[in-house]
Write a structure and sequence with these properties.
Shape: globular
Helix content: 55-70%
Number of helices: 14
Strand content: under 5%
Mean pLDDT: 92
Number of strands: 2
Largest sheet: 2 strands, antiparallel
Length: about 375
């Protein structure tokens, strides 16, 4: 009896060791670099965008390529960025008043910052027009004027570009104007009880019986929407001066959201598309999870979040993200373009999902060095 027990114990221990080695291999820096490069190569071979090559979807994707190059110095990423920028002639998309159309400029600013011959004249024009020119305001259902950044996604699309451009120009006046618009969004969309952002005004609770609700009665908080915000905060803080007067506000908002998001991580390491109603969908979702992983990893790597508390969260999340990538490099389980929680599957992909995957991997690499 003792021999049988010992035999099973040895076998069980061997299985545990093999599983541990498999996990360690999958999470190794080399494996992470390979997964990231495969993702880019697959995405470049399958170009997609919502409206134009300079739209927000490519803006988010190529921000991921920026972060991959920043973390690895791999020339493949640099060549990808340079080719894209030249194809686009360094242009943003067409609407100066819409945050989405600034997002692609983040890549152009990065190229300039590392000494590449990038033309930032179009970026300068759209940033200044966006901040200072009269806007074609979006009207709500009552035909009333609303705020410039009226949806959560905008806080990823415009503020990181503005902070990066302000750093390039060594001119904090851009940040002062940005603060004004950011606070409008914060005051309208941030739920100070839940420490999460509503995607837009339709999801802000007023206490009325007609407020948007999940089936379980909770408020609707979209994973990717909050991923846009906290990922955008990390990008902003990267380029914001350490002594900038309102930096502490952004840092505190980042830490407050990070604590809440950490507690919503699921057993598979990912986050569901509906943060407060995880039972609504039986799977994790890559785009929101990727931005969360990037932001939490960035927070640890930059001293804003406790390593002992958050590194296990990031590691678990990156392991979960790797499982969503196919052998050919395609990153699945990405919710389609939208504005509220919806399902995804192993075949659903978008370029911004690849961008989120790359951003997550970039901070995981820094975390393991």
């Amino acid at each position: 009896m003792h021999k049988i027990t010992f035999k099973y114990a040895v076998t069980f221990l061997a299985i545990l060791i093999l599983q541990s080695c498999k996990i360690q291999k999958s999470l190794s820096p080399q494996n992470t670099k390979e997964a990231m490069l495969k993702a880019v190569k697959w995405q470049e071979a399958h170009p997609v965008f919502a409206k134009a090559p300079t739209d927000w979807t490519n803006g988010a994707y190529y921000t991921g390529v920026v972060k991959a190059h920043e973390a690895t110095s791999d020339i493949n990423y640099l060549n990808t960025l340079k080719s894209m920028a030249k194809r686009n002639n360094y242009q943003p998309w067409e609407r100066y008043y819409h945050a989405d159309d600034l997002a692609i400029c983040y890549s152009y600013i990065y190229l300039k910052s590392i000494g590449e011959d990038a033309d930032l004249a179009p970026t300068s024009k759209i940033v200044q027009d966006h901040l200072y020119k009269d806007h074609e305001w979006k009207s709500n259902a009552k035909d009333e004027k609303t705020i410039l950044w009226w949806w959560a996604d905008a806080l990823f699309m415009a503020p990181p570009v503005i902070t990066a451009f302000a750093k390039t120009e060594n001119d904090d006046s851009y940040l002062k104007e940005m603060d004004k618009y950011y606070m409008e969004s914060y005051n309208m969309l941030y739920d100070k009880k839940e420490h999460l952002f509503a995607r837009d005004g339709r999801f802000v609770w007023t206490g009325a019986s007609t407020d948007m609700k999940e089936k379980n009665g909770s408020k609707v908080f979209w994973s990717r929407g909050n991923g846009w915000v906290i990922g955008g905060l990390a990008l902003m803080l990267t380029n914001m001066p350490k002594d900038y007067p309102t930096r502490l506000f952004y840092e505190n908002l980042f830490k407050e959201m990070a604590q809440r998001i950490k507690g919503l991580q699921q057993d598979d390491g990912l986050w569901k598309t509906s943060l407060l109603s995880p039972e609504s969908f039986n799977h994790g979702e890559v785009s929101g999870s990727g931005f969360f992983t990037y932001a939490l990893g960035w927070g640890v790597n930059n001293g804003l979040l406790s390593r002992s508390e958050y590194q296990p969260v990031v590691t678990k999340a990156w392991e979960g993200l790797l499982k969503c990538q196919k052998a050919n490099g395609k990153v699945g389980w990405v919710q389609n373009i939208g504005f509220d929680p919806k399902p995804a599957d192993e075949e659903s992909w978008q370029n911004f999902g690849t961008g989120a995957f790359l951003m997550a991997g970039s901070e995981y690499l820094k975390l393991t060095n």
